[in-house]
Recover the amino acids of this structure.
């Protein structure tokens, strides 16, 4: 069959479409549920703990987060791929990855503890960091999540994830209600992973699969390592990129300053599921369009950029104007220094929204190396700018570093000749050229008709 005769239209009545749509709907519903609960419970906890203790908790989470990429060994997507290709290797693959992750978790805890000790952390800080990093042990059973992903059965993952998250959220509310100390919040942070592991255990057993059949295979381990080591490196880069600012704020300034900064960051990052949800939903249609016409492919991609840019700007403008009011309303007067951070940090969302869409483009074009390089660029710039700007401008300097590094990482896609057109497309979307043009045409046509 020639390419011209291939039907690229989506058959909405097909069983395949219904299956994938139901799977995606489960994932989106879970993401929205988690985001809303995390948003309100996070604010409730922040107000209770105050900037100092809230900052210390987030510092411990960020410090441990610098090392967690070693625990899962970058094997998530690879496990899904292998289970799809060879479902008969289920027990061998799951048993091997579980064992490797378990070993990786103990290596991670050792690295975290040793680094915190060498960094002269106080005994209490060290305890918080070790408790939070110990969650990686229970996250080893997350291999069950990849198993259900390979079967396009996200509902089982959602049941386990939502249940564990809801239980931990209730526990956090109870800790506030009963006036419990900071240490208990760190314990609940780890308990969420314990509950999740229990959830995975029950949904796996409910589907009549047996953990007793899991087995370790040395050959499979070697195969997985050959494919996953670049992803481990990428995970380390991303972890540093995302967590280093709060770690550096604590070391240059104080835990209280981390609290101010973390409060603003949580408000900004609460929106970050939006571009992922939209891009994941529409990108298959964009890729399919390429089989019909390159012009149609780029046109749909431009519309995605335009839509995401418009949403991010529509969020950033009112937040910028009302940052003092928002911080005072949600977190209270104690978090007033977070307002300027919110004003700056919210604009990093523009680059983040466009970055998610352009990452989908790079994957579809098999340009994953470029995706890694731009993340590496962002990490390096972020660390350097934080090093210089935090001593000069405090937490506002860290927000500036994030804004610049996120923007540079996203727009560095235009550094190569092959992808330069993506930079042009994103700049058109930020300037709202296409949206304003369509609006102008609409006004002209409306006047002509009247």
């Amino acid at each position: 069959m020639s390419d011209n005769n291939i039907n690229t239209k989506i058959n909405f009545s097909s069983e395949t479409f219904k299956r994938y749509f139901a799977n995606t709907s489960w994932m989106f519903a879970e993401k929205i549920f988690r985001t809303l609960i995390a948003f309100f419970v996070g604010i409730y906890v922040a107000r209770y703990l105050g900037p100092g203790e809230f900052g210390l908790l987030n510092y411990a989470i960020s410090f441990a987060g610098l090392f967690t990429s070693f625990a899962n060994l970058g094997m998530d997507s690879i496990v899904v791929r292998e289970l799809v290709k060879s479902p008969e290797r289920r027990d061998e693959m799951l048993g091997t990855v579980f064992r490797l992750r378990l070993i990786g978790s103990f290596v991670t805890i050792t690295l975290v503890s040793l680094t915190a000790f060498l960094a002269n952390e106080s005994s209490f800080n060290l305890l918080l960091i070790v408790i939070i990093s110990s969650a990686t042990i229970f996250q080893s059973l997350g291999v069950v999540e990849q198993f259900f992903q390979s079967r396009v059965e996200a509902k089982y993952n959602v049941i386990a994830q939502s249940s564990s998250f809801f239980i931990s959220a209730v526990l956090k509310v109870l800790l506030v209600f009963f006036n419990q100390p900071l240490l208990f919040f760190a314990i609940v942070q780890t308990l969420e992973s314990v509950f999740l592991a229990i959830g995975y255990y029950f949904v796996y057993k409910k589907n009549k699969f047996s953990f007793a059949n899991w087995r370790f295979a040395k050959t499979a381990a070697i195969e997985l390592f050959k494919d996953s080591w670049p992803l481990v490196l990428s995970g380390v880069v991303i972890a540093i990129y995302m967590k280093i600012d709060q770690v550096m704020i604590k070391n240059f300034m104080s835990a209280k300053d981390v609290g101010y900064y973390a409060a603003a960051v949580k408000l900004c990052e609460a929106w970050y599921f939006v571009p992922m949800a939209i891009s994941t939903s529409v990108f298959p249609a964009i890729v399919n369009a390429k089989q019909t016409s390159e012009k149609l492919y780029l046109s749909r991609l431009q519309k995605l950029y335009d839509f995401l840019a418009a949403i991010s700007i529509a969020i950033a403008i009112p937040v910028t104007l009302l940052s003092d009011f928002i911080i005072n309303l949600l977190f209270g007067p104690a978090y007033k220094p977070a307002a300027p951070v919110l004003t700056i940090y919210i604009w990093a969302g523009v680059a983040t929204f466009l970055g998610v869409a352009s990452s989908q483009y790079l994957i579809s074009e098999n340009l994953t190396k470029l995706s890694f390089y731009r993340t590496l660029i962002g990490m390096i710039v972020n660390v350097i700018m934080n090093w210089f700007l935090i001593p000069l401008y405090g937490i506002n300097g860290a927000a500036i570093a994030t804004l610049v590094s996120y923007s540079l990482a996203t727009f560095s896609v235009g550094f190569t000749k092959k992808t330069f057109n993506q930079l042009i497309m994103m700049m058109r979307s930020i300037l709202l050229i296409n949206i304003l043009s369509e609006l102008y045409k609409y006004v002209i046509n409306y006047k002509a008709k009247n």
User: Anything to note?
Assistant: The chain has two domains: 10-216, 245-450. Residues 1-12 have pLDDT under 50 and may be disordered.
